[in-house]
Structures are given as C-alpha cells and as structure tokens.
Design a protein that fits this description.
mainly alpha; 11 helices
Amino acid sequence: MTELNAGADGATGASGGPQWATFARNVALVVVLLVMLWLAFNVRLPSIEELRHSLEQWGWAAWIVFVASYALVAITPIPVTIMAVSAGVLFGVLEGSILSVIGVLIGCWVAYWLARGLGMATVERMLGRHGPTVKNRLESKGFHAVYTLRLMPGVPYWPVNYGSGAFGVSQRDFVVASILATVPGQVSLVAIGAFAADPTVVKGVIVVIAWAVVLTMTIWAWRSWKGTSRRPLPGVGFRQALR
C-alpha cells in the first residue's frame, strides 16, 4: 500500500513538472506578446533629425548606440527597414551598411535564442497567422529557407528569427545564412537612405547595383531552395566546412 502511495506521489510530482513548465511558457508567451504589441503600437521611432541630434550628443559612442538601438528593433515586429534607411541618411553607405548589418544580426540572434527558450508550441502561437507558413518553410531546409527569406524583399525579419529558433534550425545554419543574406539586403536599404540624403549619380548607381544584386540572389536562393539551381549558393561550402 505504501509503495502504491509512493508511486502515486511520484506520478503527481512528475506530472506537476510539465504542468508548471507549460504554465511558465504560457505566461512567458503572454508577456512577450504584450511587450511586442506595446512596442509595435506605442513606440514612436524618432525622426531622422531627432536621431541625428541624439547621436551627436553621444560623440564617439554614437556607433554603439545606433547598433544597440537597431538590435532592439530587430527583436520586435517593428520593421527593420526604418533603421536601415536611417543608417544611410546618418552615416552614408559604407558606415551605415556596417552598422546596420552588425545591429540587425545581433537582434536576430537574440530573437533566435528567445525562441529556443520559449519552445515550439509557444512560438507557433506567438507567430499567429505566420506560424504554419514559417514552420513548413523552415523544418525541411533550414539553411536555404533562412537564406531565401532574408533576401526576399518585403518579408519581415522577426518571423524568420523566432521560427528558426523554435522549429529546429541549427544555430550554425541560422547564423551563416543570416550573415550571407543580410549583407546585400541591408546595403540596398542603406543605399536608399544615403541617396535620399544626398542624391548624387554615384549613390544612385549604388542603389541600382545593390537592388540588382538582391533580386538576382533572391532568385538564385529560391531556385537552390527548390533544388533547381545548377550552382550552390555562396557560402554553402563555408557552412559545410563548419560541420
């Protein structure tokens, strides 16, 4: 009889663990959703002039402040396009591209690990209508999916970040694909900002070339993802070398 009671107590304790884990994840989901909704609807990003004035006050630390700000934006559903274009206006094509790539990659990586902590079911609910699509895209060919979705104009970054962490994309595939695909995308956006601030012929040419590269690589990545490309994507060899 004692053994039965002990067994029952053990079962209760064992079942209590997962129940508390599920409860904690649900609470985390609610908190994350509320924070993201509040950020998306209540946080007003500063204008270019306001941002310029704030950065000038930071002096040599302006780069660090901008990168940190960009990383925070990349964790949320706020479009990263705003920050990338702002980087072009404030810093020019070269500096703006470097800062944008660093900032967005830090934010994407943090979001990836947040998703790992929250778990698949929690993130799938958090993604809402994006959930099934992101899951189907990422579960089979994670590297190619992240590569393609990062390049594709108009696709938000945040579902890819959280989906990759939740649906089993390895950190290696996520980081390598994000680095390789984020660079041309960010440069194309930064170039628009730089051209808007100083519309010269040279900067106009940079915009055209940058977007030509993005569209070409998007098509290439899409065909590689579907298995119809004759040549592997840039960086595939590097990814395999990291195995």
